[in-house]
Description:
The longest helix has 38 residues, at 592-629. The radius of gyration is 35 Å and the shape is globular. The relative contact order is 0.03. It is built from 57 helices and 5 strands. It starts with a helix and ends in a 5-residue tail after the last helix. The chain has 1153 residues and is mostly helical.
Amino acid sequence: QGSRCHSHHACNFVSLGFSVPSIARRTLAPPLFGGFDMATPDFIETLRALLSDRNDVRNAAEKRFTDARKQQAGTTVAALFQVLSTQIEEAVKEQAAVLLRQCLGKIREDGSTWSQLPDPVKAESKAQLLQLLEAESSHKVRRKVADIIHSLGNQMIDLEDTERPQNLPQWPELMPTLMRLILDGSKDAGVRADAIWAVKELQTSLWQVMVANRDQTIQVLKVCLADNAAPVCENGVALLCELVEDITNKGDRQAFLPLVADLCAAFRKLADTTDNKHINTVLESMQCTVESAEFFKDCFGSELMPLLCPVAKGHKEEDTRRLATEVLVSFAEQRPKSVAKDARQLQQLFDVCITAMMELSDDIAEWTEEDDDEDGDSEENFKHGKESIDRLSKAMERAERFPQALEVLKPAIATLFQAGAWKHVVAGVSVLAQIAEYIDDSALVAQMVEAIKAQLAADHVRVRHAAWSAIAQFSEDHPDIMKGEALAQQLLPEFLKGLQDPCQRVQIRSMETFQHFGEVVERETLEPFVQPMMDKLSATLQSSKLALQKKSITYIAVLAGQVQDSFAHYYGALMPLLKSLIQNLLHNTEERTLLGKAFECVSLLAKSVGPAAFRADAEMIMQSMIQAASAPNLPSSDPVKEYTLAASERICATMKGDFLPFVPHLLPGILEQFTLAPKDVESLTNGDSAFDEKEEVNLVVTKENGKVKVLIMSTSEMENLKNCLECVHTFVEELGKLYAPFVSQTAQALLPVFDFSMGEEIRDMAFETWGQLCKAAREGGQGDILVQLVQEFLGRILPKLQETENEIDLQALKTRADGVTACIRKAGPNVLTAEQVSNIWLVVAGALSASFTRREAAAKRDKAPGGDDDEEDVESDDEDAADETSYRVACCEIAGALMQHHPDHFMGGALTQCLALVEKLIQSSNVADDHKLALFVACDMLEQLGGRIVPHWPKFLPQLLQDIVHQDPLIRQPACYGVSLIAKDPSFAPFAAETASKLGEVITQSRGRARKRSEKPAQAAADNALSALVEILLHQEQVVAATAAQLWGVWWQGLPCEEDEQEGVKNHKILLQLVQSERVEVIGSGAANLQRILPVLIDVYDTDMADDDTSRGIGQLVVGLGQSGLEKFAPQLKERQQKKLMRIHREAQIPKA
């Protein structure tokens, strides 16, 4: 009955859709090849030799075959077909199929084997492939034949998305034959399954044909999904999913929705089979893309989740459980808003993930012997469950739905902790760690950390280990909260206990956690614990266990880096120990990581004691690093490379000019790495050395001269290139004009990185480094070289901003725009002519215009019938819009750089157009991004053009002043910044009083807000409002005299600045100056306010919120208080502030070199 049903559908499909040409069943006659008959055993022996495990035999056979393929293409293809038609061992036929696929590859390239075949042979080859697929009994060989068919078909077929042909003119026999095989119930299930698989693999090229024959396609899929043969059924599901993914039009996809019920029935059937490979194939095909998630959105919760959740939680095979979880999570990633609408769906999703997280081994003894870094494939479902929680949370956060997700998670987490069983607690702690990044409420973060801290003393080693991992995660995600004095004081004693944990794996995890926590905790809070920590570390540092040695060195390095000069008294005892360790490890190829960590620790010790104390050891250390990094035959993943580069940066930053003698020895080896570049994937298939199978690689798809290329590069090579760029950047930045002799050499080496397309952060660092080279050349008096550098850069990069390709890489464009800005800013004044400034502005204006045009086109597409009206699709569009916005800002930064160093040229050649742009965009009715962009440009004009722009204020200043109280903090911030730039100008007097009042409101309201991460933009805007207000108070005194006393109070009580470091430096410098000059408006009558102002100055001392001059001034102020002053103010301070006050007093009395 099944066979008759299949035949019936085959007739329908053929009669209603594809026309079926007759296919002659012939075989290709085997011509002679290289002097001997291909049908003879000699040729077969050549194929067998290609399978040999002996390199010499295999290489000789490869040469014979390659030569023959080049010289006699048609003969070679015919011979391979004959072998595939011969009764011979499976391995030889598989080899023949692999070689035939190569011969029929790259058919569009000149000189390819296919291009050398006469048209009759091409036609015969296509016919033979279809015959082989039908006749071959071996599954392995037949699947390779199907692979050749789809490979050849995908190369030949070229349909536009809008086309809907009934059949394929390039290969008219293809689809009718495959459909006949699929629907012929008399055929072996394997033949039919491979035919379906071939159709699935062809979908990227011929989905238009499937849509054109929609009714027939649905009939065929229904038959496949209902088939009792598991291979046919599983490939039917995969075909449906692939078709849905490839169809570009939403309406065309919807036509296949009736098949969901059939898919569900097929899923149930395959989930119950004894061999899980069938359901695994289905689950792999169901992993959601944007298109498939949109297709399943209305039935996912009601029809698919009831099928997937039981499999994800209860299937007997763990890889199947993992794949089912992946389908669920991938859908939620694509449709977070849809999922978040139904709390039950969220609950089910999190339940699946938490169930996976409890798949933990009961063999604790075995677990304790494993290493966190080398636990391989153990507990894969636990890891996948954690990752899935993170991915779900990230998707919800991106869609602004995480609060709903958190409410669903809270009772689940509470249940895990209350259960008490160690697996439940580990899962609960791990969930907290995974969601930490997305928690906005500071109080909730502290509450979560308290719950985790309690588990650091748990009896079970797995619970303690999980708790330390969670502390590390919270330290990374919430450094501001974790470094809080109260919380840090609770955690630091736990770290002392962790150093003595009886389980080495937990002990090591606590040491690793300190790397994260120790780097954020306040110096004054940490210092009392340094001595007891060092007492314990002295034992682990000399342990015979290398893992403990490595972690001890890193632990010590963190301590040295954090407490800085107060660590100096450990230098005398530690440095000889580290030098000895380095000498012992220099020639030990097995312990390269330990050697690298020793270099890291030395560099941080150098920073703690300063250049004078380190100078005696510097030469030996640097020579050892050079020797270690230049050892022969180092793999690209050698850890010493990264450590020595980072250590060189720190030592350079410590020694400044004294580092210069080492540069000639280090630089050539570093610049050599700038030649690292990705490979074309196709080159790897043509015999080039491939990557180690265990090596992580990065892939990127690019288009060059209209041709798509896939580039590949190992992660370790990319990291090495990035680290080398950062190292050179540090050298140039720290040495300044002293680097001038190396500028030309470095610039020449940098040029290849300009075209690096695997990661914009690498190209961005190259451009930043080029800018630093310009600065070094200018400061070093190399005027000619400076001009050459600027012209070289602009000549290479500016044309890229003018390209008008259909597919725009916005991130690459932004990187280039940022690079132009860096080059112009660092080059300084008098480098560009008036004509060049005008031309650069024209490029900027053109780039902005093109970006706005793309935005308008996207808006029109969305409004058109069938356009994106789905909220999830709009979210995807928003991401593209965000990239465009960032690019436009980067373009305007170029204009700001031109104003900064060439204001007169800009006034003459660009101001009129620039003002017109600002006037158009700043209107309050415009979209927020345009409004902000106008404010950014206006601020540049106010800052860089100064008095020149005053006559043009009416074009934008009224709106800027209104924006001080705008509801969006991202608009308030630049508006307040703009006021801070012009408040001192006498022309601002008419606006001063009203503006000061508004600024006071912004500061008071913002500082009264709850302390949440989401409030940081509001606090940054308030920081800028503080700058604007104090400038008005200082320079418009008469205008604001009536409210000055109240406004001064608002200003100093709004300090310290919280988010904007640039404004923090300004305000805290002014505060210090006003205190030093005893301005009564600030310090109050009888210095009554000093008790509240002093903590502000103490807190900002030696931070990014104060420059060196301000920190020195704070020190002088503290010394000036005298003993009586210290005794008066210290008791009112927090314990941490008291300790820092003593440090300030101590450091202020040390003579500066």
